Description:
By secondary structure, the chain is an all-alpha fold. The protein has 13 helices and no strands. Helix 2 runs parallel beside helix 6 (90-110), helix 10 (170-177) runs antiparallel to helix 11 (180-188) and helix 10 packs parallel to helix 12. The radius of gyration is 21 Å and the shape is elongated.
Amino acid sequence: RNTPLHIACINGHEDVVEALLEPLTSWDLTEQSEALNINLTYNKLPVSGVSGFAYSASVLAIDRLRSAVTTVNSTGLTPLHLAAASMRGAACLARILFILSASAELVETDLEPGTIDSSSPCTQALAIRGGREGSTPLHMAAMYGRFDRVQNLLAHGADPLARDSRGNTPLHVAASCGHGLFVDSMLRAGVPWNCPGEMGSSALHLAAMAGYSCCLLRYPAPVTASAR
């Protein structure tokens, strides 16, 4: 089963993604205080208490947001997995990562400096493994050749050396699927071509096994390289 956010990401509806997530980022003090019957107007809460309350409310908002973007569907995939894989999902992926990182930065900047790592919500969300192969969102982008999403995913903390259930990195997945431009993007990002994956094979070996010459020609690797 998919949530509305999953469906919006599959279909590339950035405006729907924003409409679903923006309300979750709200941590308005007046609304929060009314919910808890706290009267801030007449100073019935010390200044330090107001600051602490604001901080708690903002962290709660981030938790709500993080929960929405990390909810898995029946196949174990989050909206980020689907946005990374979908043909029309690039803008949705960018919007989710922007909202998630911006919300954390707001807490870091305005309330309690040094307490929250603004990159951590994105990093944690992008580390979730789902689907039959235990794929991260970067693996999903590799599987479908979405090279236009590599830079954004890496900039927000995606691990280029993350392993799926077979022991393969996104580079291995892209090479085995014949996605040459994705291979280029990963190599330019500094991923080593000879990183061992499934059965000790490099991505070069997987490309050769699958017969993808378009990927083989992109490797700065000797043809005599052996699997580990």
